[in-house]
Amino acid sequence: MFRFVRKNVIQIVSRRDLIETPLRFSQNPCLKSISTTPEGKETPKASDFTVSYLVNSCGLSTDSALRASKGFPLKTTENPDSVLSFFKNHGFTDTQIAKMISCRPQLLSSNPNKSLKPKIEFLRSVGFSTLDLTFVLSKNPNIWTSSLDNQIVPAYGFLKGILGTREVIISTTKRAPRLLHSDLHKTIGPKIGVLRDHGVPDSSISSLIKCQPRVFLIVHLDRFTDAITKVKAMDLRPSSSSFYIALGSILSLSESHWEEKFELYRSFGWSEDDFLSAFKKQPQIMNISKVKMRKMMDFFLKEPGLGLSSVSSWPHLLLFSLEKTIIPRWSVIRVLTSHGILNKDVNVCTIFKLEEKFLEKYVIKYQEKVPQVLQAYHGKTVIEG
Description:
Order of helices and strands: HHHHHHHHHHHHHHHHHHHHHHH
Distance between the termini: 43 Å
Radius of gyration: 28 Å
Largest sheet: none
Number of helices: 23
Helix content: 55-70%
Mean pLDDT: 82
Family: Belongs to the mTERF family.
Keywords: Transcription, Transcription regulation, Transcription termination, Transit peptide
Structural class: mainly alpha
Shape: elongated
Pfam families: mTERF
GO molecular function: nucleic acid binding
Strand content: under 5%
Low-confidence stretches: 1-46
Number of strands: 0
């Protein structure tokens, strides 16, 4: 059955903002005019003027300025200067300004009071802090050129109806700023309808959008529906948290990446049934990087000597940090075992999973009797053997 699931995993093409970060930001003052030239020299071309302004006043690299200047000739600096002043007065850094202008040089022709200021005021009114605003707007400058009344306000209203609180809306838009200038009724609405038709509760839908907003924006409806069918084929209940986590995991990986990670698990000796069992218990194991996956499996199979069945039965262990959690706890276990306090056949998986109780039960409890446990917990003790 897993072959059916694995072979039909959805192809997702990640999108990244192709915005070049400038290598430097010139400290030269804004160019007020370069129309007057020494006698005998030609007046600079409009394109030269534009490139000079983009480099010296906006902080773009020469290559980036040349690209941005195409089809966007500047004649004066008056309006561009007012736009730059607006951005600086509202907390944008030089680097953020350069990114926005590089992506959308047309911003320099905007009217700060009529076009830019209303968007800032609206986002502030719904709870965005200065840091939130500068992060979101510089990450996706398309928001600046979107209609406040026809795109931004309706998008926020849609998110409020699904996500609820301002805090959640802001954190979600920081993951995917594109949400603020998309027609969410067309892109996300139908997918929410499909999830509801399959019995996924609104609380799970909200959690999935919060964690995987880009999936809802990018994936086509037919592929989204197909992924739901595949997760249901794993016998995961739509009302369970594992269902929406598994769905998000499948949708976030391309088929090739899924195959690579599955084959890596198989290289450690896992069967398809082992993998499917582990994935159903903890779908996030497929979101672990291949480097971390190798380190974790190598450690568990060599140090504690856990069998493959133990790791596949407790896949949550793979989500822990090896350096910050697993190794310190394993060091404590070895100290306590060497002093005869713990039996050598103790259930290591259970101890690893104790979370906040581990410190109290195995470190604080024995630190007077066995001082080495505190050193081991902080990575300062190495035991041979």
